[in-house]
Amino acid sequence: MSRIGKLPVDIPEKVDVSVNDNLVTVKGPKGELTKEFNNKKVTVEVKDGQVLVRRVHDKDKDARAFQGLTRSLIDSMVEGVTNGFEKKLEMVGVGYNAKKKGKDLELEVGYSHPVIIEAEDGIEFDVEKNNKIVVRGIDKQQVGEMAAKVRAVRKPEPYKGKGIRYEGEHIRRKEGKTG
Question: Could you tell me if 115 and 47 lie in one domain?
Fold first, then answer.
């Protein structure tokens, strides 16, 4: 059996999970997430305050993988509607700063013009000390994608380390020209 897939997902008190055929809906204090699982190899059911993901055929290797994947996605949905997710980014460089304009994010990262990143539905930006950016939301995948879009505006370069990086990310530095 899949080690992750066989574990049940516990449903907290304030969270409601419903399953209709392939559609799983999770409602909680922070919002509502819906995901469709179009996989015939696993079934999802809610029983005794837990979500159980079961394989249709025990011997199928793909079914084991999909069981673990489905369980992890449902667990992330439950976590998102209860606590939410956040990714922190930091800006390194002289004159690099960020401002929040309404819901959107304005970045000044060494270009001749400021770069504006529009917040998608369900995403919230926070700016701390003009050089730290926090991306928050209830959908783990969406938060990660928005953080990657912000980072892609000015990726960290290996010579001086300037750019936008994830908090705690280590940038391998190069030596540069010698002689």
Answer: no
